[in-house]
């Protein structure tokens, strides 16, 4: 089996669902269920014995070693993190605790477990750490995209905490020989995205007749990666990635925020027109910029294509349409997230 941490979050839950749809290998899912964890994402696995959910933190130095000994996973995939830049600006401490201290404790627990495995199991074992393109800092309009050799220059408490965790992961390979892999991906989007991030927030606000907030001039550029493409990249890296290496994962989709939101509005205008006949674009509202806002991220995903034969299947146009349709077709999920009722899911389903 594999151990997935943070598997009730946006990317982690997509990963668990895709994994069990395609493979028969069980998943042990360890998630602390912070505000970002939503077990409703995994409701289709309720009766699937291949999915074992455990509520707990990666930094729990009693629970994690016990789980590792009991279930003997052949790999750990670490999605667990505090992930929202704006929250890291308002309150950085949770980011240091989970992303830095938590990853450190997880690495220590995994190192002790790995050291006790027999030689074959040791060499087959993998620790795959999920990181972000934000560790590379910000780009000017004409700069080349980030490669795996771009120096780290994180600018927000979030990206600094992710950079710190990446360095620890690297050091555990170099110093202790732990068989690690790291992926640095761009902005994901798709089903089960928590509505604090740009795309789901704008979708929900549009549908609820609220202002659609654009920070600053809306010309900040991000690369957009459909979450299912990200999941297939992780499976490729886990299967064939070279130990100790990092792999950039991107969608080859650089877009300015305002263009992303205009595209969202166009699709909504077509699929769910406003009652008054106006475009959803009428709801776009420019608001105060984020402090220290990185201007541009761009990912050069050549290495993963050349070495592992992975490239994204979705263009931004196909992926964003699928995403809007998913939100329109999953109104109960949207309503539970918007009302906060998703936090009751654990009690409703598991007690
Ligand atoms: P998310 O915030 O949606 O989910 C994080 C999950 O981790 C939640 O289920 C939460 O309950 C859990 N968690 C938090 N602290 C924990 C702890 N101490 N122990 C166990 N579980 C804990 O995040 P996401 O968007 O799914 O991101 C997953 C990973 O991918 C993160 O490491 C993030 O830094 C990285 N990443 C995300 C994006 C993106 O666009 N979303 C882009 C690049 C990298
Ligand atoms: P976000 O989804 O928070 O991801 P990240 O900061 O990790 O890239 O934001 C994506 C971009 O959208 C970023 O440039 C900030 C911007 N943004 C807005 O303009 N308005 C919003 O309400 C949010 C949440 C983000």
What does this molecule look like?
By secondary structure, the chain is of the alpha/beta class. It has a domain at 2-192 and 224-253 and 295-312: NAD(P)-binding Rossmann-like Domain (Rossmann fold). The chain has helices at residues 10-22, 63-71, 85-90, 93-115, 119-124, 157-176, 198-207, 227-240, 257-271, 302-308, 316-329, 331-339, 345-350, and strands at 2-5, 27-31, 51-55, 75-78, 126-132, 180-185, 187-189, 212-215, 221-226, 246-249, 254-256, 284-287. The strands form three sheets. The chain has a seven-stranded parallel β-sheet, sandwiched between helices. α6 (157-176) links the parallel β5 (126-132) and β6. α9 (257-271) crosses α11. The model has no long low-confidence stretch (mean pLDDT 96). The site of nicotinamide-adenine-dinucleotide has 30 residues, from α1, β2, α4, β5 and β7.
Structure, briefly:
The protein has helices at 10-22, 63-71, 85-90, 93-115, 119-124, 157-176, 198-207, 227-240, 257-271, 302-308, 316-329, 331-339, 345-350, and strands at residues 2-5, 27-31, 51-55, 75-78, 126-132, 180-185, 187-189, 212-215, 221-226, 246-249, 254-256, 284-287. The chain is an alpha/beta fold and 351 residues long.
SSE topology sketch:
Elements: E1 2-5, H1 10-22, E2 27-31, E3 51-55, H2 63-71, E4 75-78, H3 85-90, H4 93-115, H5 119-124, E5 126-132, H6 157-176, E6 180-185, E7 187-189, H7 198-207, E8 212-215, E9 221-226, H8 227-240, E10 246-249, E11 254-256, H9 257-271, E12 284-287, H10 302-308, H11 316-329, H12 331-339, H13 345-350
Parallel strand pairs: 1-2, 1-4, 2-3, 4-5, 5-6, 6-10, 7-9, 8-12
Antiparallel strand pairs: 9-11
Helix pairs in contact: 1-8, 2-4, 4-6, 7-9, 9-11
The structure holds nicotinamide-adenine-dinucleotide and thymidine-5'-diphosphate (TYD).
Nicotinamide-adenine-dinucleotide is lined by residues 5-6, 8-12, 30-34, 36-37, 57-59, 79-81, 83, 98, 102, 130, 132, 162, 185, 187-188, 194.
């Amino acid at each position: 089996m594999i151990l997935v941490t943070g598997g009730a979050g946006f990317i982690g839950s997509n990963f668990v669902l895709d994994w069990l749809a395609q493979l028969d290998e069980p998943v042990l899912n360890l998630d602390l269920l912070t505000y970002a964890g939503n077990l409703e994402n995994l409701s289709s696995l309720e009766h699937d014995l291949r999915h074992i959910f455990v509520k707990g933190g990666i930094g729990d130095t009693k629970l994690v070693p016990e789980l590792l000994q009991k279930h003997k996973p052949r790999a750990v995939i670490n999605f667990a993190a505090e992930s929202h830049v704006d929250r890291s600006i308002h309150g950085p401490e949770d980011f240091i605790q989970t992303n830095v201290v938590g990853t450190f404790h997880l690495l220590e627990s995994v190192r002790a477990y790995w050291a006790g495995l027999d030689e074959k199991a040791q060499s087959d074992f993998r620790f795959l750490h999920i990181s972000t393109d934000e560790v590379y800092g910000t780009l000017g309009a004409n700069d080349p995209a980030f490669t795996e050799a771009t120096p780290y220059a994180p600018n927000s408490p979030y990206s600094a905490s992710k950079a710190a965790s990446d360095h620890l992961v690297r050091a555990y390979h170099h110093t202790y020989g732990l068989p690690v892999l790291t992926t640095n991906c761009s902005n994901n989007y798709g089903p089960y995205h928590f509505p604090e991030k740009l795309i789901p927030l704008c979708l929900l606000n549009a549908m609820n007749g609220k202002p659609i907030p654009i920070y600053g001039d809306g010309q900040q550029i991000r690369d957009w990666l459909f979450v299912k493409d990200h999941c297939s990249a992780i499976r490729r890296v886990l299967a064939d990635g070279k130990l100790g290496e990092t792999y950039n994962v991107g969608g080859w989709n650089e877009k300015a925020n305002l263009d992303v939101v205009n595209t969202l509005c166009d699709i909504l205008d077509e699929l769910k027109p406003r009652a008054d006949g106006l475009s959803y674009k009428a709801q776009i509202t420019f608001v105060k910029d984020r402090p220290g806002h990185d201007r541009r991220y761009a990912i050069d995903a050549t290495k993963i294509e050349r070495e592992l034969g992975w490239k994204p299947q979705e263009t931004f146009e196909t992926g964003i349409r699928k995403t809007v349709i998913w939100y329109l077709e999953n109104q109960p999920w949207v309503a539970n997230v918007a009302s906060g009722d998703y936090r009751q899911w654990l009690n409703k389903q598991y007690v």
